[in-house]
């Protein structure tokens, strides 16, 4: 992508920083080799609803804690378990894994609005900070732990710092600075999946879906199943579907005439989501689930799950809607 077709291009500026992402290995001291790879004995453990506060909340104030929500009947859970245990052990105690069987202990999963397993939620300082759903390949699990607990050595700390700066700029509304940072990282380290996903997401939110697709196309093949990349792909698909629906006023009129017009409410939810009205979009679909779970072969719930993927597992709208959905399904 060049500055002509980049909505944030044209300024020609580079991310001004003392950090250089090029090959500076000659100037950078080699990372110390850690030969003692044996982790503490309690780096992986099972927990219960009663022990959750100690095993996860309190323990996460010392180092990050992953909570793996699973069940004995879950095939993908069995695929993920050896991968995530191996990755956690390789961290030598810098991150811990706590496993919770939701069949025996469903309360915590319900409070977090988890409806699909395996689900892995990362806690830091007593709070959930990140997570992913579904079985992931070993490379993606390792990348997730590197982001969470640090990779150590090389350029990763500087990359993390730059990504954080870009996220801060974006949150403050300075989209140009955020775009410049993401581009600088990608130019010098083209396979930085986190930067690719974040830049594509920024472009998608800006309405340039084609540019977002171009950025996604640069992702390495090894990251084909990356959760962040898939979330942007889903966001783009939802935006394209909403664009084809036109103005939401027509669907609001239909609902005023007939509140049981589930198709109108469904289409309105798509438009609300495209407009960034996530809570309203979720509530529209939840209203359909409440009124008629069987409508369109449970289509409202299925669409809500697509919203969750596009929004992210820890987005406030996702968490709130998951709790409401759980209440509807299991009350």
TrEMBL record:
The UniProt record lists the Thioredoxin domain at: 32-150
The alphabetical list of record keywords is: Disulfide bond, Electron transport, Redox-active center, Transport
A GO term (biological process) for this protein? cell redox homeostasis
The Gene Ontology CC terms held by the record are:
cytosol
Database matches in Pfam families? Thioredoxin, TPR_19, TPR_20
Member of which family? Belongs to the thioredoxin family.
What's the superkingdom here?
Bacteria
Q: Name the gene that codes for it.
A: trxA
Q: Which SUPFAM superfamilies match?
A: Thioredoxin-like (SSF52833), TPR-like (SSF48452)
Q: A Gene Ontology MF term for this entry? A: protein-disulfide reductase activity
Q: Which organism is it from?
A: Oryzicola mucosus
Indicate what this protein is called per its UniProt record.
Answer: Thioredoxin
